[in-house]
Amino acid sequence: MMTTQVGAGTYTLAPLHADDIPEIVEIERESFAVMWPAGAYRKEIQSNRMAQYLVLRYRPAPGEIVPPLPVRPEQRPFPLSLLPWLHPAVREPDPTGPSVVGYAGLWLMVDEAHITTVAVRRAFRGRGLGKALMLAMLDCARDLGARMVTLEVRKSNAIAIKMYEELGFRQQGVRRRYYTDNGEDALIMWSEELSAPSARQRLDAAKRALRERVRWEHADS
Fold this sequence. Notes:
By secondary structure, the protein is of the alpha+beta class. It has one domain (10-218): Aminopeptidase (3-Layer(aba) Sandwich), CATH 3.40.630.30. It has five helices and eight strands, in the order βααβββαβαββαβ. The protein has helices at residues 21-31, 38-47, 129-143, 158-166, 197-210, and strands at residues 10-15, 51-59, 100-109, 112-120, 148-154, 170-175, 186-190, 216-218. Strands 6-7-5-4-3-2-1-8 form an eight-stranded mixed beta sheet.
């Protein structure tokens, strides 16, 4: 069978559904030192009217085999955290690949939107998918009536900070020792006014440039 480069298939943005949560949790384990439990996502989509979550689904191209996703054990509270993990779980290879390769979410608070999470599966990073998710979140925030968007990012995460700055975010403060895994500071970043002509021009230009690298579609459900 002829193989195809990973990432040559079709991407689709769609609302998060309960069936997506197991894959969301796997990507969280791969992406974050401290993760949300699956139940938190179920609660978000079932009862939090302020929350909006999107997933980026992927349909592989003919002949493409997506690599398996390694799964880390969940963080366990002390003293269970002292117990060794002798055999970390690894997901079995799937010739068709996972259906979800990234996700993002926000909370709407009056006229401000707070980005709660953005993550992309490791094998699909470096293709602009994180920026595609952020552009979708900014569109979502604007559609919901948000005036501005805010987020926190690790002070050491230079790649994410650069991406946010390209989308018009600027540092407005610091949350000291915000991250509980290592006590790292978080930078507080805010977008410009979403209705401002400069913001619309910036985001439209970002979409055009990104679509030269990756194309995505929108699903209604």
